[in-house]
Design brief:
about 160 residues; alpha/beta; Rossmann fold; about 45% helix; globular
Length: about 160
């Protein structure tokens, strides 16, 4: 779940129930050897913990935050309001199949940006890959791994359908 080095990516989720959908993000960061941490932080139930986390993340060396939440899904937006770091929102499946979470995450007011991804596991993996692309801007080792990953994805797609 995290590397020995100090984390540069934080994955935060609103509750334990989000972990199964968030796990793909942690796995892809591990595949790229990106030091990261995973924490349960609720914008509503643990507001003091959240504010301490968000206001100190940059000082701790965090470069990107992935925030996963369902229902009202305010975690990404509230986090973005407390930090200048890029916040990548991952809506979780919820009572309305995750549509409520998606709309809550994507509808941010002007001036408080949150990049928003697909609902659930696919969005989790893509958010991690997006974080990797951000990190690759200044890290040639990560950029090289990303190039290899993209080539691997391309090779996995057949040129013709199987008969």
């Amino acid at each position: 779940m995290s590397n020995k080095k100090n984390p540069i990516v934080s994955i935060i989720m609103g509750s334990q129930s989000d972990w199964e959908s968030v796990k793909p993000a942690s796995k892809i960061l591990e595949e790229f050897s990106i030091p990261h941490e995973c924490k349960i932080i609720s914008a509503h139930r643990t507001p003091d913990r959240h504010k301490t986390f968000a206001t100190n993340a940059k000082k701790r060396g965090i470069k990107v935050i992935l925030a996963a939440a369902g229902g009202a899904a305010h975690l990404a937006g509230v986090t973005a309001a407390h930090t200048p770091l890029p916040v990548l929102g991952i809506p979780m499946e919820s009572k309305l199949s995750g549509l409520d979470s998606l709309l809550s995450t994507v509808q941010m007011p002007s001036g408080v940006p949150v990049a928003t991804f697909a609902i659930g596991g696919a969005g989790s993996k893509n958010a991690a890959l997006f974080a990797i692309r951000i990190i690759a801007i200044d890290d040639s080792l990560v950029a090289g791994k990303l190039d290899q990953y993209i080539k691997k994805i391309e090779k996995a797609v057949p040129e013709k359908p199987k008969e």
